[in-house]
Structures are given as C-alpha cells and as structure tokens.
Design brief:
It is a single chain. The chain has four domains: 225 residues, 2-Layer Sandwich (Heat Shock Protein 90), CATH 3.30.565.10; 131 residues, Ribosomal Protein S5, domain 2; 98 residues, Rossmann fold; 130 residues, Up-down Bundle (Four Helix Bundle (Hemerythrin (Met), subunit A)). The strands form four sheets. Strands 1-6-5-4-7-3-2-8-9 form a nine-stranded mixed beta sheet, with helices on one face. A six-stranded mixed beta sheet has the order 16-15-18-17-20-19. The longest helix has 23 residues. A hairpin with a 2-residue loop joins β19 and β20. By secondary structure, the protein is an alpha+beta fold. 37% of the residues lie in helices and 21% in strands. The N and C termini lie far apart (91 Å). α10 runs antiparallel to α11. It has 21 helices and 23 strands. Bound molecules: adenosine-5'-diphosphate (ADP). Adenosine-5'-diphosphate (ADP) binds next to α2 and α3.
Length: 622
Amino acid sequence: MSSHKFQTEVNQLLHLIIHSLYSHKEIFLRELISNAADALEKLKYLTLTDDAFKSFPFDPRIDISFDKNSNILTVADTGIGMNETDLVENLGTIASSGTRKFLEQITGDQKKDSGLIGQFGVGFYSSFMVADRIEVITRKAGEDKAYRWASDGKGEYQIEEASRDGAGTTITLHLNENGAEYASRWQIEDIVKKYSNHIMFPIFLHYEDTTYEGEGDKKKEKKENKVSQINQASALWKRSKSELKEEDYHGFYKTLSHDTEAPMLYTHTQAEGAMEYTTLFYVPAKAPFDLYYRDYRAGVKLYVKRVFITDDDRELMPTYLRFVRGIIDSEDLPLNVSREMLQKNRILEKIKSASVKKILEELKKLAEDTERYAAFWKEYSRPMKEGLYMDFENREALLDLMRFKSTKADGFVSLAEYKDRMQTDQKAIYYITGEREANLRNSPLLEMYRDKDVEVLIMDDEIDEVILPQVGRYKDIELKSVNRSDAAEDLKSEGDKKAEKEVEPLVKRIKQVLGDRVKDVKASTRLSSSPSCIVADEKDPTVQMQGLLKAMGNADISSVKPILEINPAHDIVVRLKDVSDEAVFADISSLLYEQAMLIEGVKLENPGQFVERLNRVVAKAL
Ligand code: ADP
C-alpha cells in the first residue's frame, strides 16, 4: 500500500466545498453519476471506434446500492475505469486549469455564493460533504489489475492493489451523520430524477423490499432484494418536439449545465433532408462565471448518432456565443472523427452556421419582450457586441439585436427605433463614446445636437469604442461619432459656417500658444453654452480609445493629438479677441484647452501648471 498527499489545490477545493456548498449537499450524487456517465461514454466510444475494443464485453450501466444499517452508499459503473497513474492524476490533483483559475478567482464573499460554485461543477470531492471515508475500487478497460483508492479527505489518500470483476469503477461512501439520510430509496430516487434523469445510460437502484404475508398472528415479514431502473435514459433531443414540455427541456438543461436556475431561452431543431442533425441550445439565465476567461469551458457538446464525441471543442460555437449551452447531434459525421477533422469539417461548418442563425432568430423573438430582453442584454451585451466584429455574415441580424442608451430615452433603444424617429434631413446616426454615462450626458459635444433636437446614442461601454467605427453603417445610414471633428459638419447652417470663418485670426493665435499640445484648433458652432471642446481627427483614436490602447501596452500613440474646437459665440471667446497682453492671452488659451480635456475625463499632464494659471486669471478678475 502506498500513501500520497493531495495537491494543495485539492485541499483548498475540499475546504471550499465543505464550507460553501453545504446547503446543496445532495449534489454529491449528481457529481458521482455524471463521472460514471462520462466513464461509460469513453468506453462506449472505444468499442465503436477502436479495433482493440470492438469485441470488448460492454454492458453500460450505473448501479446504486445502500445499506441503512452500516451507513454505506455505493455507486458503480461499467465504464472505462482507472489504473494506478490515472488514480493519482485524477483523484489526487486538480487537472482542469479552469478549476484552478476558479479557485484563485473566488474570494471572501463570493465563497458563499454557492450558485456560482454549483454551476461550475465540483466533482468527485463533493462527496466528502456527506462521507467521512471514501473508497474507490477501479479497473481500467483492457487491463488486468484493479486498485483500491481510499481517503478520509484530510490531506492524504492511499492506493493498493485490489480485485474487481470486469472494467469499471465502484465508489463506496461511508456516510457521516450529515449523509446518513441518503441511505434511503426515496432520497436517491428523488435526487436522480431531479438531476440525472437524462443521463443516457440506465441507472439501477438496488433496494430491499419488505412485504407482509398472512393476517393477524400469522402475519410474516418477507424481505426481497429488488432492482429497478430509476432514470429515463433516453436522448431527450431525439424525442419529437410535440411530446416535450417546457419542464422536460428545463430538466435536461439542469442535467447538462449543472445550473440550478431555469434557462432564459431554449431552441430545439430537428433537421431532415440533405443534412440530418439535431440541435438543442439554451441561454443560461445568468452569464457563466468563466465568460471572460481565456480558457472558458465550451458550452456545447457534440454527439454523432447519439454517441458522445466531445464536450471541449470551443469551435462548435463562435466565441461570442460562448455562453450558449446545448448539444449538436449529427447523423452524417463518422463516429471516429478526430479533432483535426472536426476543425475544417464541411458538415459541421454547415450545422454551425445554421445554429448561429437559429440562435440569433430566437434572440430576435426574445427582443419583442422588452423586459425579458433587458435581462438578456444585462448579462450578454458584451459578447454580443464582440459578435459585431467577428461575425460579418450575421452583422445585420446582430445590429438589430444591439441596444444603446440614448439622449432621448431612459432605458435602451435599438438602432431601428433611432432610425424611425430620425429627422427628415438627418444624414447620420450619431453617438458619443466615453467613460461615464453621467459625464457623457453633460458633454459639451452634445450641445448642438440638443439645440437641434437630434438624438445621440450614449456609448459608455469601452468595447463600443472599438466596435462602432468598424461597423460603419446601419442599413445604409452612416454611424458617426460626435467625438470626431467632422460629425458636426452635416448639421451646420450657412450662418454657422460664416461665424466660424470670422474668428480665424483668433484661432491662429490660440494655435500658436498651444503649439504641439494640439493637432489643430478650429472654430465650431457645435457648442452653445461651453467655450471649447476636444474632438479627435477623422482617422485618429479618440482620447478614450487612447486610454484603452495605452492600457493594452500600445506605446506609439503619444504622437496622437486632439483637435481643440472653440465656440465663436461664447463670451470668453468673444472677449479674448481683444486681449492684447500676451501672457494673459496664453493663460486663457491654455485654460480653454485644459477645461475641454477635463470635461472629456482626461487626466491633465501638468495639473500644477493648470492650477497656477487658473489662480492668476482669478486673481486678475477679483
Ligand atoms: P471532473 O469530473 O470535473 O473532471 P472530478 O473530480 O469529478 O472532476 O473527477 C476527476 C477525474 O477523475 C475525472 O475527470 C475522471 O478522469 C476521473 N474519474 C472520476 N470518476 C470516475 C469514474 N467513475 N470512472 C472513471 N474515471 C473517473
């Protein structure tokens, strides 16, 4: 017998599970059954694709038994099994990097958020919530030796040789006082129906049935050992849509995703004809915790003719739809498809493309219900926006699914709504980008639009800044950022243009003072109550974009300068024309530039100088 220590992370995970999942302790059984089903799927796959296993005796099943008197619960499967190395790697360490990340990520309060932990699937170790000792007897398919792994979950485990008839794994839990209630026929049936009804292999429960014979004094107790199948064990997605109810779909979703909440939406497609396949997709009510991890878990499983092929192929969905959960089952792919084959497989590409269209259609339907769509948008606006620059083919559909804040509405508006209420001579859809909604709503850049009653979309999500310029148009209408110099041009009258011309000499003087702090100085009638504002030149990144680029380590943007626009009608500008004292003129010109930067949310390069200037001007005025 050999003794081993758990990897540190395993101890952490054990601790976390025991302290945070406690109110959901019944999920241990779901986890054991789900591992057993995986092991069966792996062996089934080998018997179908690997010559060495073609004649392997395979009777796929999961057997659960219990003994109330000795507080024992056993889950056995006839799956792939494990050898000694597998045992050390699988039950002594945490193999999945996603799990490790998750552990690092959650701290403090989050530890109490068992919903999150439940969703992520805690696996085998959750059994230590209900057992003070666990024994695993396992034999790998195709190998002779069997092993016993045993542990009390307190830092160490032991492995020794053992014996087992046939391949598979038997897990025996020595239930503690918190787990004793699970040595019960009704408890087990309940939990299996709740979480594992749609596992594709039969789950048998072994129990002792007591009946009574005779009457009165002669009444005799008769005990009989019985076995009955307690799950449905069929591929739900293959059943006809008309016989399935919402609760069936929701039940299957819970088996599939380990989510305890019902999904926001589901869509089931059974395609026949040139290509035969079935898809069943779900959008979870809450965004998966790993939505923004680089190594997020794939949400869609691939089956071929109901045989499980893979659950970790991220290519099955475009990245932006990584929150979708579900299955794809193809009748046309060969069973022994390799990973490489999957990557550029034409059949799969077609299924994928039809699936994306289908999901977007469903979202469009969802959008008809403003309230439900708002809930969707709250969880998934980011990934959906990513779709705009990744999925050119579906850009129109995606654009219709976008929602933005607006100067003309409190909630969110769609581009279609904006278009419907555009002014007759309006040439573009205008938007403003920047950091905080409140700042943007008060930006001087909006003054002209407010005066002319033109709607402007408020884009305060940093991703907007990256995506909108790439999109360019919505149904032939140009999308224009009001943060750019030329966006105001279409709204200007001849009078405006004349007023701008008149202050050109002043503009030249200011430009001389500001030197290379700005790319240019222009007169602009887009302002009404503010004296100045900052805009970006047509091809340059805006100041917010520059912040993003800097954060991403992009070094050569220091040469990008803003354009300063001044308001010819503003009091300060009108009087500045007559200032002959060069020092005062320089101070005020600089203040026009600095206040415009501040209002855009940009940090001044030299706040000290700004304050000195401000004080000089204030002192003069007093
Ligand atoms: P997960 O299932 O998320 O990978 P677990 O901790 O539940 O994490 O299990 C770790 C690993 O142990 C599994 O990935 C699998 O390789 C192995 N394993 C667990 N249960 C069984 C089983 N019944 N048969 C074969 N292998 C198993």
